[in-house]
Write a structure and sequence with these properties.
CATH architecture of one domain: 3-Layer(aba) Sandwich
Number of strands: 7
Structural class: alpha+beta
Bound molecules: coenzyme A
Helix content: 25-40%
Largest sheet: 7 strands, mixed
Radius of gyration: 17 Å
CATH superfamily of one domain: Gcn5-related N-acetyltransferase (GNAT)
Strand order of the largest sheet: 1-2-3-4-5-7-6
Number of helices: 5
């Protein structure tokens, strides 16, 4: 009986694995719910088919609740997107995905990882700060918030060696 309950609850823990092209639609759905401009299933599928794309997903059973996706070029990587479904946010899922992802990038030879983040995006900034990223640049007026206001993009970097 105890074993059955253990298995039941264990099954609700997200599992982190590499994302595949067949995850494109589920990833596009989370992305569309998270960002002003979504990317299509086809765009994600093309990205996931590329050899220099590295992507991880968080799944519970067959449902995908979060992902992170980067592009590797030589010894540098750029995180292109990360998102967690709203029902799963605030539980450390992005942190776990990011940690796994950085280990994988390091294993593939990346020595530095870059990304851009909206300066108003506090959850994302906290996520990256805790993971050791530091600000190396700033692009004013990069993210259009509404007709009259655009937020700056912060360029962040984390060295892996
Ligand atoms: C950013 C995002 C991926 C974080 O996912 P998450 O699984 O909720 O993050 P975690 O639970 O691992 O927490 C990471 C950090 O964010 C903080 N955080 C999470 N939700 C927060 C919120 N609503 N407000 C403020 N901080 C928040 C956590 O406290 C944690 O910081 P800490 O370690 O200093 O306490 C998620 O909010 C998201 O998908 N946002 C929309 C897409 C997006 O903005 N992606 C980033 C683009 S660069």
């Amino acid at each position: 009986m105890i074993g059955m309950f253990t298995r039941l609850f264990a099954r609700r823990e997200p599992v982190l694995t590499e994302a595949r092209p067949r995850d494109a639609a589920a990833i596009a759905a989370i992305h569309a719910a998270s960002f002003r401009r979504g990317w299509s299933d086809g765009e994600f599928e093309r990205l996931l088919l590329e050899r220099n794309t590295v992507a991880h997903r968080a799944t519970v059973g067959r449902a995908l609740h979060g992902f992170i996706l980067s592009r590797l070029a030589g010894d540098e990587a750029e995180i292109l997107s990360v998102a967690v479904a709203s029902a799963w946010q605030g539980r450390g899922l992005a942190r776990a995905l990011l940690n796994l992802h950085l280990r994988r990038l390091a294993g593939l030879g990346a020595r530095a990882v870059f990304l851009e983040v909206d300066e108003d995006n506090e959850p994302a900034r906290r996520l990256y700060r805790r993971a050791g990223f530091r600000e190396v640049g700033r692009r004013e007026g990069y993210y259009q918030q509404d007709r009259d206001r655009a937020a700056a993009a912060l360029v962040l970097r984390r060295d892996l060696v």
